[in-house]
Design a protein that fits this description.
By secondary structure, the chain is mostly helical. Helix content is 73%, strand content 0%.
Length: 419
């Protein structure tokens, strides 16, 4: 026992952690207050520059403070409920920087024609860096800021941009990871164009002419260019980061996998062989290869704490090593019920490969020269699952399951590596 321990006893780490959490909380609170204050000051300056009355300035400032509070509330709710998209919970500053830049832009929009405001791209950008709810509400808040500076004279555009922004958010909500932006951009832009033309007819009571299309075309061109630039930035910041992370964790020499190897070599080699087979099958049937491989490697990472099948033991490792969202979702599914009743195609594939690898390793551990009938073993394994109802809720079709069976039977040469 050292002098410090003898004099003071063991000082618990919880005090240090509590102090760190308190400091983090104070920093977050200070940042939130700063955002609200800066927003209010900017709104005050913009309102003064627009020559609004004192009553209108007070109204605008109070409205901005309330809207800022709403955005903060929605963000905190997303953190608590874990509903933020694309791992945005790890990058809180990124969203609020984008929001403030968009806020400054919203203060300048009253200087130009209300029919060329690029709000559709702002709705999409804010939703991609938070979630659909936050993107919609923050987009509406910024649109309201612009309209307040117009002194209520351009209320009708709210209808146009709200519909266009909402549809765009829905279209872009689940396409980020596959980078399938083409069709959502096309549909969003076409809808925006139709709404802008309708605005001329419904609200301005103009007769349709070719000249009427000039301003809507300008908006469409600006919005399209902005979307292309912003989506490219999103791909680099978010999607590429996820790809890089997959490259790290799916490396057989990755730190966490090496820890599993040092803890239990059999578990490590079982994971490696399972990952190899599952990766090849996933590639053939069009499943998520990267998430499949990661799940095959790390679904028993809890073994490092003596709890190989415990999700709560595994979660800290996923967080510590910043696993991509899609990998975490599959790992949670597989650890909870994937071994007995898999649902996703990826979980079903891993379930079959792991069972086959485990059986072969067990046989070869007893007799390295044992002769096996792998085809019969695979057929019996799949039949047993059919009878037991393990595939009742699986997304894997019968045709795909037959394809999996054929692919596993083709790997006879590889099974010799398990000896």
């Amino acid at each position: 026992m050292d002098i410090k321990t003898a004099a003071f006893g063991n000082i618990p780490d919880v005090d240090i952690r509590s102090e760190s959490k308190l400091l983090t909380g104070l920093k977050k609170a200070a940042s939130i207050c700063a955002m609200c204050l800066v927003s209010a000051v900017l709104m005050f300056v913009a309102s003064k520059a627009r020559g609004l009355s004192d009553v209108e300035i007070i109204r605008n400032v109070i409205t901005v403070i309330i809207e800022s509070g709403l955005i903060v509330f929605l963000w905190e709710d997303g953190l608590i409920r874990n509903t933020l998209s694309y791992g945005n919970e790890k990058h809180i500053n990124r969203f609020f920087i984008i929001y403030m830049v968009s806020f400054v832009a919203s203060l300048l929009f009253p200087l130009v024609n209300n029919l060329i405001w690029p709000y559709l791209s702002i709705f999409v950008l804010l939703s991609l860096f938070s979630n659909a709810m936050i993107g919609l509400c923050s987009g509406c808040a910024l649109l309201n800021v612009t309209l307040l500076l117009c002194n209520g004279s351009y209320v009708q555009p709210f209808f146009i941009y709200l519909i266009a922004g909402t549809v765009a958010i829905v279209l872009f909500q689940h396409v980020g990871e596959k980078l399938q932006f083409g069709l959502p951009i096309l549909i969003s832009i076409m809808l925006l164009f139709v709404l802008l033309v309708a605005y001329h007819v419904l609200f301005l009571n103009q007769t349709f002419t070719i000249a009427m299309l000039t301003v809507p075309i300008v908006n469409v061109v600006i919005t399209t260019l902005l979307l292309l630039v912003l989506l490219n930035a999103f791909s680099l910041l978010v999607i590429r980061g996820s790809n890089d992370m997959y490259m790290e964790i799916n490396d057989p020499e990755f730190e966490l996998l090496v820890k599993i190897k040092n803890k239990d070599k059999r578990e490590y080699y079982k994971a490696v062989h399972t990952a190899y087979l599952a990766d090849r099958i996933a590639a053939d049937i069009g499943a998520d290869r990267r998430a499949t491989k990661a799940c095959a490697y790390y679904h028993r990472v809890g073994i490092l704490d003596g709890r190989p099948d415990d999700l709560e033991a595994a979660k800290p490792y996923f967080h510590r090593y910043q696993f991509p969202e899609s990998a975490v979702a599959l790992l949670e599914e597989y650890i909870k019920s994937g071994k007995t009743a898999p649902v996703s195609k990826e979980a079903t594939i891993i379930n079959l490969c792991e069972d086959l690898v485990n059986k072969l390793m067990t046989i070869f551990e007893k007799d390295k020269t044992a002769k096996i009938d792998s085809d019969r073993m695979i057929e019996e394994m799949i039949e047993r699952r059919h009878v037991g109802g393990n595939f009742n809720h699986s997304d894997l079709s019968i045709a795909e399951l037959n394809r999996v069976s054929k692919l596993l039977k083709k790997e006879k040469l590889y099974y010799d590596f398990l000896r």
